[in-house]
Each structure stands twice: as structure tokens, then as C-alpha cells.
Amino acid sequence: MSQSTTSLTPPEFRSPRRRRKAFNRLVETKVWERVSYPEYREHVRRVYAGPKGALLWACSLLSLHAPLGDRMFRQRRFDLRGRKSILDVGSGAGQIVQHLLKYADGDAAIVGLDISSEMLRRARGRIKSDRPQFLSADLSRLPFADCAFDCITCGYVLEHLPEAGPGLSEMARVLAPGGRMLLLTTEDSFGGAWTSRLFLCRTYNRQELLHICREVGLEPVQELWLSDIHKALRAGGICWELRRV
What we know:
- There is one protein chain.
- By secondary structure, this protein is an alpha/beta fold.
- It has a single domain (16-244), classed as Rossmann fold (3-Layer(aba) Sandwich), CATH 3.40.50.
- The chain has twelve helices and eight strands.
- It has helices at residues 18-27, 31-34, 37-49, 51-54, 56-62, 65-74, 95-103, 117-127, 164-174, 190-199, 206-215, 228-233; strands at 5-6, 85-89, 109-114, 133-136, 149-155, 175-185, 218-224, 238-244.
- Strands 1-7-8-6-5-2-3-4 form an eight-stranded mixed beta sheet, sandwiched between helices.
- β3 (109-114), α8 (117-127) and β4 form a beta-alpha-beta unit.
- α6 packs parallel to α7 (95-103).
- The relative contact order is 0.17.
């Protein structure tokens, strides 16, 4: 097992000190607690339709998330081989779809989904490929039949739901038994708190999120890290491979 991969059985989670957690809670936005769900979704749409969304592709490059994500797929730490129907949830500017096009089987069907039609327009313009199908939809109400996909990637979008359960339950529903999911989401850490304030998202506690995953039938396979430095610093958020039982 590589240095940038760890087992989730048993889980090895390091919780921040109580004082640091209290500071994180002060920094983290709570807009999703103060407004209705439809109002919150409109807030999120406006964020990504504006300048922050327009800069997302460049930010992924500058933060090294895009090149390090590419390496993760290239090294088959999350192995796309043999997967024939892949759903990318929260496609944004198309960062993960770009990796899927490079490393998935040539005959794999790829669907990219995002709540922001503006972000999907940007993704189409940057990727310039007719292969992926893009559509706008809400993670909490996926417009697909049960067991429609054998692979799902979900990069930094689950935190845009007030609660993880509905989104994880929907992804588990459309994922076939034995199918694999790559889940990346913002953690309740110092860096996650500032991400929350910048992009109006919430953060998740590792232990609580793992419990919800198991409740909806998503069993952890391995914990992944973008690099050994991310692993040493416990940075980059939560990155798990999950299996639909």
C-alpha cells in the first residue's frame, strides 16, 4: 500500500484539539442553517455562477488539486478500469471529468452533473469533447434509475448539502452493488473552515460521515491522500474510496 493510501478498517481519525475546533466553528459559515433549503441552493448557484466559479479551474491548478488528482487516477490508486458507466457528481469546471476521459476505458459512458448550468457551460468549453454527457440536477434528487452506474466520483460537492444523508443515499441508490465511489469533501478542519466561508459550504466530521456512509450501504475501502505531504499535514479534506454493498 502506498504512503498516500491508508486503510479505513479500523478507522484512524485524528480529531483537532477542542480549542482549534471552537475557532473553526467561528470561521465556518452557517448560512445553510439560517435559510430554507431552496434559498440555500440559490445562494450556491449564485456563488458558482459568479467570479469564484469562473476562477475555479485556475484555483484547482494553483492549489495542485488538478495535477495531484490526475496522478491519483494515473497511478490507479482509484482504478477506473472495467467501469463502464461513470457518474461525476458536482462536475464544476470539469476537473474530474477531464481525468475520467484520460483514464477510464474508451467505451465507458461518462455523465457529468452539476446544479450550476453556468459551471457546466464552462466545463463544456474547456473540455471540448462530445464524449461526456452533461446535465444540471440536484444531488439530493438524482434523475437516474436505481443501480444505473458502476462508478461515481463526487469531488467537493457533498458539503453543499445541509446534511450528508440525502446526498449519500441518492448516490448509493444509483450505484450498482459492488460499484465504487470516489468521495472528496471538506473536513471540519482549519482549512475546511475557510473553504466553508469562501464557498458557502459546510464541513463534515470524519467519524460522523463514515457512520452515515455505512448507514446508506457505502462501505469504506481505503482512505486516499493527494500526496504524502497532504497525509502528513492531514490536509486536503476527506478523500475515500467507498463500495456499494
